[in-house]
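Much of our argument rests on the idea that a fold can be written as discrete symbols. The record that follows shows the chain in one-letter code together with its fold in token form.
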Amino acid sequence: MRKLGAISAGFTLIEVMVALSIFGIVAAGVAPAFTNFIRFSNDSQLKTQGMQAAEQKLDQLRYVDPASLPNSAASPTDEIITVSSRNFNIHTVFCSQASYCVGGRTRHVVVTASYSGQEVFELETVFTTLR
């Protein structure tokens, strides 16, 4: 038999309500940080994949003699390169800075990777032939 006034195990309704309130305040503070982390992670992944697509285009161009590449910025090229099921539009401009395209052995190349109309990565380099 139990005695009157014996201590019972468990939480009171007030204690549960206070604990839930504290949990709600902490969760409300953590949720925006988590959302920002997910957005940052997706943006970073998109930029990395755009970089991979642009590098694939440069790898294709490395096998071509620079003298055979266009020597005027008036003839850019566009193509689609797929990286991890995302299709990137690769826009390539040759000799946008004419001073790098003197003679037939060098070409200035700018490669821009875009996804859904948004530019995610751009790189430029100069291709040349060695003697």
